């Protein structure tokens, strides 16, 4: 029954968003909506490792960029369609997650977080010196013809990201209520106690790292087609890491719905500020919201709602 309560509204919302892409609404809505939905994917992916397992991953830009550059290579070398680009980005980023997991997940706390930051600079250095993908100057991309009857590429990418959001949230929700999620929460509370209880902590952490990495790569794969351009400075931008951390904190870490709420709130607010005030204020918006929620509602919006319900009884 609980699954039906999730799937019916989730599918209805996704179908409505896809249908919206065929409407006559202003094009900017889809341009901005793509970013908001991408935030949902990124926040849900981060929460699997950072929220459920308690391992704070600052290497989000590396996984997003690997997904983007994998999509670029597949398109440039093989002329691969968008679906293949997304699957390829997810696969390569998942493999990166496996490698990072095996190498770093024995580290704990700040040492793990520092190691994930190092991954960003290592991969960015590789891309900066890789001429096939444009190197430091980047590369302009000629989009292929629009598919599936959409009027513009932006509308098609908006619909694609809506489906990716559903997939990311569904996977995040499934893991939360599965034995994997139970094990991850146990090791988050006390890794030593979990190991003594027979929980395969290392295996669960590697699974979380692979799934999180794959979803981050899938979220980054449509970016080259979205911008018609790709370059290392924006692809490996640390703002991805800040936003990925901020959204679950704002919505509520450790629950599948928290990152969704945080992504919709933060993404929509940032897009509004970009249009009405200035794009340079995006980082300030993130910072102010983080401070407010850490001080006023440290458990996020979900935690605040739960506390309000308890106090009102």
Describe this structure in words.
The protein has about 325 residues and is mostly helical. It has one domain (about 1-240). About 75% of the residues lie in helices and about 0% in strands. It is built from 15 helices and two strands. It has helices spanning about 1-20, 25-50, 60-80, 80-105, 110-130, 155-175, 180-190, 190-195, 200-220, 225, 230-235, 240-250, 255-275, 280-295, 300-310; strands at about 140, 230. It has a two-stranded antiparallel ribbon with strand order 1-2.
Feature tags:
mainly alpha, two-stranded antiparallel ribbon, 2 strands, globular, 313 residues
Low-confidence stretches: none
Biggest sheet strand order reads 1-2
Tally of separate domains: 1
Give the averaged pLDDT, no decimals: 89
Strand count, sense and closure of the main sheet? 2 strands, antiparallel
Q: Give helix and strand order, one letter per element, not per position.
A: HHHHHEHHHHHEHHHHH
Helix content: over 70%
Shape: globular
Q: Compute the gyration radius: what is it? A: 19 Å
Strand content: under 5%
The counted number of beta strands is 2
Structural class designation: mainly alpha
In short:
Helix content is 76%, strand content 1%.
